[in-house]
Amino acid sequence: MRAVSVSTDALVVTSGFWQTNAVALRAGDEAMLIDSPYLPDELDALPSLLAGAGFEPDGLLATHADFDHLLGRLAFPGKTLGLCESSVERLHREPGGAQRALRQYDAEFYVTRPAPLALGQVQGLPVPGSVEIGDRELELHPAEGHTPDGMAIFDRAIGLLVVGDYVSDVEIPWIHEGGSVADYRATLARLAPLVEQATTIVPGHGAVHPRDTALRLLDEDVDYLDALERGEERPLPNGRDSKAQRSIHEENLTRV
Ligand SMILES: [Zn+2]
Fold it and tell me: Do the Cβ atoms of 169 and 214 come closer than 8 Å?
C-alpha cells in the first residue's frame, strides 16, 4: 500500500492489488474516505495510517457499488457509508452481490479476511448534488456506463477529481454487467470539462494523473469505444494491451 499526498488536504492510498485507489480528504477538523484499499493487511493498517497523517475519517464514500470499492467498512465499521442513489438501488437489486463477488475473488487469490463484509445501513446521496466536508463542498456528478451506477466526486476548491472506474492508465473502458457503451460515452463527455477544470485526477485503478494525461486517456477511451462498436478484435490502447485487458475486451464485445 502506497500513500501519496496530492495536496495538503488530500491523500491518495493505492492498494498493492489492482492498484485500487482510495482518497482521504480533509477540511478543517473533518475528514472523509472515498473508496478503499483491497488487501486485509492494508485495511488493517489504514486507520493508524490515516490517523497519523491527520485524515481520520468521519464518514465514508464510494464512487460505485463494485465490491472492490466498498471495503472501507472493514477498516471503519462504525462509519456511515454514502453512495449515490443509483448505487443504493443496485445494492438492493443484488442483495449480497458485493459480498459474493468479494468471496469469489478472495477464494481465487487465496486471500483470507478476519471478518466478512457487512455493509449495514448505507446513505443514498442525490446525484447530481453535493456533500459538505468542513467548509468545502464536494460536487457529485453521475458516472454510469462501467456499471449501472456511479458518481465522480469533484473537490473543486483543491482541484481534485475522483472519477471511479474511468480514465485509467491500467484498465481499458470496461462495460461491466448492467453498464452500457452509451452511458459510458455520456460519462466521458461529462468528465471532459471537469478534467479541464481539475489539476489532479484520481481513477479507481492506476496512476494519479495531471490534467493533460487524463485528457489524453479520455481521447484514447473514446477511440477505444469507437473501435469496440465496430467490433474490432485488437483495438487496445498502447500500454493497456495485456492479457487481462484483452479478456475485458472480449467481455465488452458481448455487450455491444
Ligand atoms: Zn474497480
Answer: no
Angstrom distance (rounded) from CA 100 to CA 94:
10
Ligand 1 mean position, distance from CA 226 (Å) = 22
pTM, two decimals, is 0.97
Do 116 and 107 touch, CB atoms closer than 8 A? Answer: no
- Of residues 4, 39, 41, 8, the one with CA closest to residue 23: 4
pLDDT confidence of residue 30? 97
Q: How far is the CA of 165 from the centre of ligand 1 (A)?
A: 5
Which residue has cell 488487501? 39
| Ligand 1 center from residue 78 Cα (angstroms) | 23
Rg (CA), the chain: 17
Q: What is the mean pLDDT of residues 51-77?
A: 97
CB-count exposure of residue 42 (10 Å: 0-12, 13-18, 19+): buried
- Contact in structure between 138 and 152 (CB atoms under 8 Å): no
Residue 121: per-residue pLDDT: 81
For residue 147, the model assigns a pLDDT of 97
